[in-house]
Specification:
Distance between the termini: 103 Å
Order of helices and strands: HEHHEEEEEEHEEEHEE
Number of strands: 12
CATH topology of the largest domain: Rossmann fold
Strand content: 25-35%
Radius of gyration: 29 Å
CATH architecture of the largest domain: 3-Layer(aba) Sandwich
């Protein structure tokens, strides 16, 4: 037998061994012999519908245990509403396991998105927005700064009996806030934390001076605040 004939015979033998393996891995054969019969999804989901998870992974599981495309199945689940992270794995002989981590909403972010407690902004499409979330907004790259200042503001005003309804950062770096009683607070872009702390410290004294509700406070002054009371508001 010539060298060329030996090489061809060796290549044919390798192909005969490898082809069935490739066929199984590609799902060309074997789906009926090694089917995926069980789908396991973590049972601590509050917002993600398990039926939607099943629907997302089913097209990727039809070719059987060896041919299932785990990355494609994971990406399909990750696109579902409320999903922050998805992991998909398989367990012999017939189990597909999906673990979903949900977004934990902290606030509304602008008009059409939500902000998670992990600082990720995600769309509200297909989501029933929980009631009572505060409104936060700013450049998305500064979401972490907005979250940090929001928590600091809450700690400052909670002892006074007020929550923070909204905290906004505009494109020029200027901050504004709305307290739970409706008072608008203009903070500005400089000495933000010291201005808020001074306002929180003096707010009980300011409110004690007037019976009317405080509508607006502008903190952008060196030696005081510009205050607008409810009776002074022009309608």
């Amino acid at each position: 037998m010539s060298a060329l004939a030996r090489i061809l015979a060796w290549a044919l033998a390798v192909a005969l061994v490898a082809l069935p393996v490739v066929a199984v891995l590609q799902g060309w054969i074997g789906a009926e012999r090694w089917p995926l019969r069980t789908l396991r999804i973590n049972d601590d989901l509050r917002h993600v519908d398990p039926a939607l998870v099943r629907e997302a992974v089913l097209p990727h599981a039809r070719q059987g245990f060896f041919a299932v495309r785990l990355d494609e199945a994971r990406e399909a689940v990750a696109r579902l509403p409320w999903v922050e992270q998805a992991d998909v794995g398989k367990r012999w002989p017939d189990v597909l396991e999906v673990r979903v981590r949900e977004h934990q909403p902290l606030a509304r972010w602008g008009e059409d998105r939500l902000l998670s407690q992990q600082g990720k902004v995600f769309p509200v499409d297909g989501i029933a927005v929980p009631a009572g979330l505060p409104l936060l907004h700013g450049p998305e790259s500064r979401a972490g700064d907005v979250i940090e200042l929001y928590h600091e503001a809450r700690e400052l005003f909670a002892p006074l009996g007020y929550g923070v309804r909204a905290l906004l950062l505009d494109s020029r770096g200027s901050w504004a806030m709305v307290l739970s009683n409706g008072t608008e607070v203009v903070i500005g872009s400089h000495q933000v934390r010291s201005r808020m702390a001074r306002f929180a410290r003096l707010l009980p004294q300011l409110l004690a001076q007037r019976p009317q509700p405080l509508s607006r406070a502008d903190l952008r002054y060196t030696n005081g605040f510009a205050l607008t009371w409810a009776e002074e508001r022009i309608t």
